[in-house]
Amino acid sequence: MNHQPLRAACMQPDAAMEAVARAHQTRLTKPPGSLGRLEDAAVQLAALQRTARPRAGRVWISVFAADHGVADEGVSAFPQVVTGEMVRNFVAGGAAISVLARELGARLEVVNLGLVNDPGELDGVRRAVIAAASDNFCNGPAMTPAQLQAALAAGADSVAVALADGSDLFIGGEMGIANTTTATALACALLGLPPERLAGAGTGLDAAGIRHKASVVARALQRHAGAGDALEQLRCLGGFEIAALAGAFIAAAQAGLPVLVDGYITTVAALAAVRINPGVRPWLLFGHRSRERGHDAVLAALQAEPLLDLGMRLGEASGAAGAVPLLRLACALHATMATFEQAGVSDATGARG
Ligand SMILES: O=C(O)c1ccc[n+]([C@@H]2O[C@H](COP(=O)([O-])O)[C@@H](O)[C@H]2O)c1
Ligand SMILES: Cc1cc2nc[nH]c2cc1C
After folding, report:
1. Fewer CB within 10 Å: N-end or C-end of the chain?
2. H or E segment to which residue 133 belongs
3. Where is the active site (predicted)?
4. Whose atoms come closest to the Cα of 179: which ligand?
5. Residue 29, in any domain of the structure
């Protein structure tokens, strides 16, 4: 199978614009650096969007939903039917991400990649069904090569629509009962870490449940120890929505669309994307630090500092959505604060503006 497009060059951030934006920040009426990561975010967006006026006004959110064969191992606090039920809830307007997207004025797309409890045709849900669920990776690869390709392409398709809609920012979210087990298996394989280090409560496992989850991941890692590179690890130990997210992040970086990453599962997908194509990394901003146990290690591997730490662990793109107002404020500060010169305020050298 030809995976060449996945490894095609990503856009390069505009280094000259980055320098202009960084210099502009030093002229604004504040001690240099005093707006902390809000400054960094505005400068990063300026470099990525190739503009002196970075924006986060037009936000696109794609939530990728899929079921996981590994749910059969009893690794979630919730039954598998919830994935399909939540898809219905997303488009009915009652889920957390439905509320957040509405409040932000963001476009919300829900993508059905394969659900055991399939709600069928629904307004607002794009059907890109691959199978009812990925296979249980304790028994064999989670996906066939063709299924992996279909999932990666479904993510890239969402980015194409987001670009056509004139989006400033792409947010990928996920919904999939048992996908913290999948994300843990994939992250352990990508990072060479033991399952006990990353396995966490997910939707609400107790300590015994977490130990069982780690043992399931250990079995899967043993079975797929021969999976050579990140793409093969994604095929053997991933899931449809995680592969779609990886495909979306690669496509966004190749097209020059900044990405705001959500929680644990999406960060593992981002790690897979970066391992497949390192040019993806500059295009990623990180919305929040999830309460899920493994998130810290995956963020550290990406040298990522998220904007928020609110103890959230929902998924659905909710943590990234929560960070959008901060990005909007960062852009407004960058564009409209007065400079020392404009305001007639003395700078650190004593020079009066
Ligand atoms: O995004 C996160 O950090 C996060 C952490 C824990 C759970 N989740 C969500 O919970 C579901 C997976 O949890 P589980 O326990 O079924 O593996 C899935 O739908 C995720 O969106 C999400
Ligand atoms: C109710 C529910 C909502 C979710 N949203 C994302 N993952 C979820 C898991 C559950 C169980």
Report:
1. N
2. none
3. 316
4. 1
5. no
